Amino acid sequence: MGLHGKLIAAIEFKAGGDVFHEILGQNPNKFSEASPDKIHGCDLIEGAFGKVGSIICWNYTHDGKQKRAKEVIQAIDEEKKLIQFKILEGDLLELYKSFIITSHVETKGDDIDLVTWTFEYEMLNEDVEHPISLLSYIIDLTKEMETHHLVKP
C-alpha cells in the first residue's frame, strides 16, 4: 500500500483571486479576522511574510481541537499566484511524515477566480487517514474569507 497521497480542491472565489493571494502571502493574520473560530493567530517566526524561507506559526482549531502548525514558505510564484508551505512542526506531523500545502489562484474567463488547494503528504503508517477533513476545513476557511471580503464596507 502506498503511504503517499495528494488531495486537490478548487473553490470559486468571488472577492478576487488577487486579493486572496495577497492576503495569504502578505497579510495572513486577516484569516483570524475572517474566521476567528478557526484561526486564532498567525505569527511570523523568521523572515518576512511573502518571502521564501520565512517561517510562520499558525494557531487554529480543527475538529474541535486547538492545534498549531509551524511552516516554511517553500515557493512563491507571483505570476501564477502560487504559494507553497512545508510543515516543519505541529499536530500534522503526528500523523504524516511530510506535509506540503500549496495555494494557487487561477483565473477562468473574465470574472471567475479559482483558489486551488493541494495537499501532498506521506502518512506515517497505513492506519493514518487521508486528510479529507482538513481539506474540508480549508475550503470552509476560503469561503469565509470570501464572505468577509465581500461584505466589508
Automatic annotation (TrEMBL):
Organism superkingdom: Eukaryota
SMART domains the UniProt entry points to: Bet_v_1 (SM01037)
Domain Bet v I/Major latex protein, chain residue ranges per copy: 2-152
An individual GO BP term: defense response
InterPro entries, per the entry: Bet_v_I/MLP, MLP-like_ligand-binding, START-like_dom_sf
UniProt xrefs under Pfam families: Bet_v_1
Record's protein name: Bet v I/Major latex protein domain-containing protein
Gene source species: Perilla frutescens var. hirtella
Classification of source organism: Eukaryota, Viridiplantae, Streptophyta, Embryophyta, Tracheophyta
